[in-house]
Design brief:
three-stranded mixed beta sheet; 5 helices; alpha/beta; binds citrulline
Length: about 260
C-alpha cells in the first residue's frame, strides 16, 4: 500500500533562483515562466485534494524551493535531512518547525548527509540512493530511523544523474519507472519495471499522488508506457524547473 497524501509543503522560488546549482545546458530559466509553472503545480496538487502549505522564498537559499531535499516524511515520522550541497545546508532548519506541526521530527546529523531526492518510498520499503548528496553515514542514520517505525530499507549506488529520483521513481502497483542504466540493479529485482526511452530520461521524475501520476509534459512515449498502469495521468510543463536540475518530485514534500 502506498501512503495517501493529504498535505504538501511547497516554497515559492525566489528572484535569485538563478544562483541555484545547475548542471543543465538548457539555457537560462525565465523567472516569470518558472513562477507560472510553480503555480500550476500548486493548483494541480490542490485539484487532487491536497492542502498546500506555501512557504515564502528564502533569499539566502536560491535552491530552497526544491523542498523535497530537506526531509523524508513517512506516516509516522518526519526525518529532517542534512542536505549534501554546502550551499543548501540550513534550508532544513526552516522546514523542521513546519513539519513538527504534523509529525515527530528527527534530524540527520553530520557527517551524515541526505537529500530527500535520493529516497524512494514504496509503501513501507525505502530505497536510498548513495549519491554526491547522500552519503553512507546519512543513509545508515535514515535507515535506522525508518526501521524503528517498522519500515525496511536498502541502498543503491547513483552513478548517473543528480539524485536517485532523477532516474527512478515508484509509480505504484509494485512498479518502478526507471532509466535503462538502473534497470538491472539488484535492489529493484522484486519490482515490475517500466524502462524509459533514452531520450525521455527526464520523465523518470514522475510523481505518484494518491491514484494519479503527474508527469512532465512532452514525453510521449513515457506517457504511452505509463498508460499500462491504468491510472489517471496529468502532464505539467516543467521546462524552466528542468533548467535548474529540478523535477516534479523536488518541488514538494507530500504527507
Ligand atoms: C540542486 O542542485 O540541489 C537543485 N538545483 C536541484 C534539486 C533538485 N531536487 C531534487 O531532485 N529532489
Amino acid at each position: 500500500m502506498t501512503a495517501k497524501f493529504s498535505h504538501a509543503i511547497v516554497r515559492k522560488p525566489g528572484e535569485n533562483f538563478a544562483h541555484g546549482i545547475t548542471t543543465s545546458n538548457l539555457g537560462p530559466a525565465n523567472y516569470d515562466l518558472l513562477l507560472k509553472q510553480h503555480e500550476a503545480y500548486i493548483e494541480r496538487l490542490k485539484s487532487l485534494g491536497l492542502e498546500v502549505i506555501l512557504l515564502e522564498a528564502l533569499p539566502k537559499y536560491p535552491d530552497a524551493y526544491f523542498v523535497e531535499d530537506t526531509a523524508v516524511v513517512t506516516p509516522d515520522v518526519a526525518v529532517i535531512t542534512n542536505p549534501g550541497a554546502t550551499s543548501r545546508q540550513g534550508e532544513e532548519i526552516t522546514i523542521d518547525p513546519v513539519l513538527a506541526k504534523y509529525r515527530k521530527t528527527v534530524r540527520i546529523k553530520p557527517p551524515g548527509t541526505v537529500d530527500g531526492g535520493d529516497v524512494i518510498e514504496a509503501g513501507t520499503h525505502f530505497i536510498i540512493g548513495l549519491s554526491e548528496r547522500t552519503n553512507k553515514e546519512g543513509a545508515e542514520q535514515l535507515g535506522g530511523i525508518l526501521e524503528k517505525y517498522g519500515n525496511t530499507w536498502t541502498t543503491v549506488s547513483v552513478e548517473a544523474g543528480l539524485h536517485l529520483k532523477s532516474s527512478v521513481n515508484y509509480v505504484g502497483k509494485n512498479t518502478l519507472l526507471l532509466t535503462e542504466n538502473f534497470a538491472d540493479c539488484d535492489p529493484f529485482n522484486s519490482y515490475a519495471k517500466i524502462v524509459l526511452d533514452q531520450v525521455e530520461q527526464y520523465a523518470g521524475n514522475t510523481l505518484l499522488i494518491n491514484d494519479c501520476l503527474l508527469t512532465p509534459k512532452g514525453f510521449t512515449n513515457t506517457k504511452i508506457k505509463l498508460q499500462t498502469l491504468h491510472r489517471p495521468i496529468m502532464e505539467l510543463d516543467m521546462s524552466e524547473i528542468q533548467k535548474m536540475d529540478g523535477g516534479l518530485t523536488c518541488l514538494s514534500l507530500r504527507f
